[in-house]
UniProtKB/TrEMBL annotation:
Protein name: Protocatechuate 3,4-dioxygenase, beta subunit
The organism's place on the tree of life at top rank: Bacteria
Region (Disordered): 1-29
This protein's record includes keyword Oxidoreductase: yes
GO biological process: 3,4-dihydroxybenzoate catabolic process
Species in which this protein is naturally found: Amycolatopsis keratiniphila
Length: 244
């Protein structure tokens, strides 16, 4: 009688060192108040956490992935199309996954009660959208290119233009958050959030690629931004959202 086959469990693939920002970053002042100062406590996941909510196509509205529609008029600013794929560490598509975005308007202001700097709100732009990835892991949003905004972290501090992305698995406990930046932004050099990423190659993966092939004539510029959840080419994910 032959010996039973050895049981081999799949290994846990860790992202390369330097991919993600430290919890406490000296240049990013508010991390000193927000990062954990005590050992983390592992809480068990009960049935509610691991089974819900149901993130199906019936929960996505007609204009949820087009932030330029659903209002009385057109929003102000440069219309853009943002598209990309959600991939696992082996480059395989992650299908039927919820992708959400939120952002400032063209003037660099969020539709949020905490954002009071004197840039006008746009009545035709809410700055939030969501969609599900398709069978190839692809998502698409139509939106407005966000503006830079001040944030008082240091003298004359301005955040580069960016869009926040949130990706979900099958439940809210399986959520990752990242930011997408735009090519050749002059504010990169002085932004402590962008520069808190130790590895230069990882920082570059946060910058979208201009996509002329998907740019629509006389309508919208296009940018491509893939999100990889783990592995050597993993996207940069954050444990804390920034000030918005």
């Amino acid at each position: 009688m032959s010996a039973p086959a050895e049981l081999r469990l799949p290994s846990y693939r860790r992202d390369p060192e330097g991919t993600h920002p430290p919890l406490d970053s000296a240049g990013y002042r508010s991390t000193a108040l927000r990062h954990p100062k005590e050992p983390l406590i592992v809480l068990p996941h009960l049935l509610t956490e691991v089974t819900g909510p149901a993130l199906g196509p019936g929960r996505i509205g007609e204009f949820d992935n087009d932030l330029t529609k659903g209002h009385a008029g057109e929003p102000q600013g440069q219309r853009i199309i943002v598209t990309g794929r959600l991939l696992d560490g082996d480059g395989r598509p992650i299908r039927d996954s919820l992708v959400e975005i939120w952002q400032a308007n063209a003037g660099g202001r969020y539709r949020h009660t905490g954002d009071r700097w004197p840039s006008p709100l746009d009545p035709n732009f809410d700055g939030a959208g969501r969609t599900l990835t398709d069978s190839e892991g692809r998502y698409t949003f139509t939106t407005i290119k966000p503006g830079a905004y001040p944030w008082k972290n240091h003298d004359n501090a301005w955040r580069p233009a960016h869009i926040h992305f949130s990706v979900f698995g099958s439940a809210f406990t399986q959520r990752l958050v990242t930011q997408m930046y735009f090519p050749e932004d002059p504010l990169f050099s002085q932004d402590p959030i962008f520069n808190s990423i130790p590895d230069e190659k990882a920082r570059q993966r946060m910058i979208a690629r201009f996509d002329l092939d998907r740019t629509e004539a006389e309508w919208a510029l296009a940018f491509q931004f893939d999100i990889v959840v783990r592995g050597r080419e993993a996207s940069v994910f954050e444990d804390e959202e920034d000030e918005h």
